[in-house]
Fold this protein.
Amino acid sequence: MTINSNDELTRDHKADENSKRNDYLNKMKKHQQEQEAFIRAVIFMFIIFMCVICAIFIFAGNSEFMKEQFGEDSFITKIFNIVNKDNNNKEKAEFSMPFGPKRQNILLLGVDASNNDNDLWTGTRTDTIILVNIDPKSKSVNAISIPRDSKVYLPDNHGIQKINAAHAIGGVGMTIRTVEDTLGVHIDRYIMVHDNAVKAIVDALGGVDVYVEKPMRYHDYSGNLHIDLTKGVHRLDAKQAVGYLRFRHDALGDIGRTHRQQWFLRGLLAELQKPETITKIPDIINVTKQYVKTNMSLYELSQYAALTKHIDMDKIEIATLPGAPNKKGYISYWILDPQKSQEVVNRLIYREKIHPEENMVLTAGVMYSSQNADEAEVVKNELAAAGVNVSCTGHIAKTHTQFIAHSNMVTNEYFNWLKKKTPSITGYQFVYEPVNYYCGETDFTIVVAGK
């Protein structure tokens, strides 16, 4: 009887361990999905917002052409001249922030489709919430993704809700107050983009050239989504572009869709650089009037356009608010980790950093996809030569190369120093994740993936 009892205890213990391991793996998968969703969201917001300010910046140097097209005294020409003046005057700062040199917090919001054609905004939910911190002095940008299912308290006694419900209940004002109260920050400006903006911008441009990497066919009659694309170079119209961006019915799922959004962005920026695009700028501006809401003036947008040229790509940091999934009945929440979330806010918004002590040895993990084993070995050897203790290696199902900092001691300055010692990681995306799901208790993890 004792033996049977011990066997039962052993089985129960193993079942409990398996349950904990499965919970851990599910949390890690959810966290990785949130990170991929953040990358998609940044790309989407970048496509819409930068269409206008990149167009202003790209053509600002051709002032004579602007005068011929729009007239010397037109408002558009004056905006172009403001940017051009800032770019050509080397005796002063090449951009001047419209509300001073202090850091700015800008809230980027992407809202879902509305059932009311006469009112695109009221009652919509924010599927994308990104807090961007811009530092004009260091010419750097940090961004925090706030998962839309985050469980929060809404102001004015609206109780516990998902954060994406704030806009549906109280508009952009309640969304801003909710973010401020939850994170303890102040929001200076906001930019809100409607779901229909991509389609409208492609319409305004007359199409975008994209290489479709494989046949894409999918029909959703209830959702009125029809995708029928063959492999090869296509000039996608608005309907085709939406289908291309939304397609995810292959082995890669959302990860493949992320790649396609990046390729689409390249095609869109190439379209903006064509000389003939300058005549379409009024149409693009009309798109923003209909599908973009902001409390910024065009002058402020023009100054951010000038700033984009000087952003140091090596100083960009991104993060997702840490937490864990939780389901209550039919409602799924993202339960924020208060301590880790505060660490993210302190680092990316308040710019608090702890520099490593002299001669301190940091520990690293190297994770890699199956086709990148040889490249991972090179990275591992270079790290060891640089004095880094590579304490953990393993496989991971990711397609993006990333440098993931887990410790406050792993700063952008350290990353840029390390790239000189470890050339193989040049061009890797810098991500801050205080919760280490990847490879033990390491200070940072390097993910070697992709081509």
The first strand starts at residue 104 and ends at 111. The longest helix spans residues 2-59.
